[in-house]
Amino acid sequence: MSDIRYRHWISSMGKKSAASVHQLKTLPPTSEAFVKNVKRAHFQACIWRSALTGEAPDMDSLENGWVFDDDFGVLMPVTLPPQTEIAPAAVMKLIQRGCSSETPCSTERCGCVAGQMSCSAFCRCRAEIRTCRNRWTLLKQRIEDANDSDEDESNDEDDSDD
Questions:
Q1: d(CA 136, CA 38)
Q2: Cβ atoms of 6 and 88 closer than 8 Å
Q3: If you average pLDDT over residues 133-157, what whole number do you get?
Q4: Dist CA 34 CA 79 (whole Å)
Q5: Fewest beta carbons less than 10 Å away: which of 46, 83, 95, 134?
Q6: Which tens digits make up the pLDDT trace of 70-126?
Q7: 88: CB partners within 8 A, 6+ apart
């Protein structure tokens, strides 16, 4: 799917204005993003279907494309698994994000925030946690940190078994 996505995007570049061609939001989803999308849609469909019966589905939202955001107290969609590239390197070289906000990535004046995406090395903030205020970047970092701590704990347990 990622190959088809890339070919589709390249073929559509000639049909759009130069300003809209090199925007991340114009890319179709990656295979990984598609899987997360399908999981979220399936979970939502199960909830809607269960509304007719009055019984909640026996499914965990956190295993179906959602993560709980402690700061906001809400479920947030996981659009990509951690460490997943959003586009091939050749496409990423064409794209550069800017942010005209006084506080980097805190408002929709940042293209990443407006597109509901985490920032990347191409943003003004360079996706550095010290400066970036994009909630999607901060959420992605929390997920990565949680995954790292889970891996560390499982490695510690493996070491203690010896």
A1: 20
A2: yes
A3: 78
A4: 8
A5: 83
A6: 888 888 888 877 777 766 666 665 555 556 666 778 888 777 788 788 887 667 676
A7: 2, 6
- Which amino acid type is present at position 98? G
Q: φ, ψ for residue 74 (rounded to 5)?
A: -135, 165
Banded pLDDT at 18 (limits 50, 70, 90): very low
Query: How is residue 19 written in tokens?
Result: 């300003």
Q: By CB neighbour count within 10 A (0-12 exposed, 13-18 middle, 19+ buried), where does 72 fall?
A: exposed
Distance (Å, whole) CA 123 – CA 120: 6
Which two tokens mark 90? 């050749």
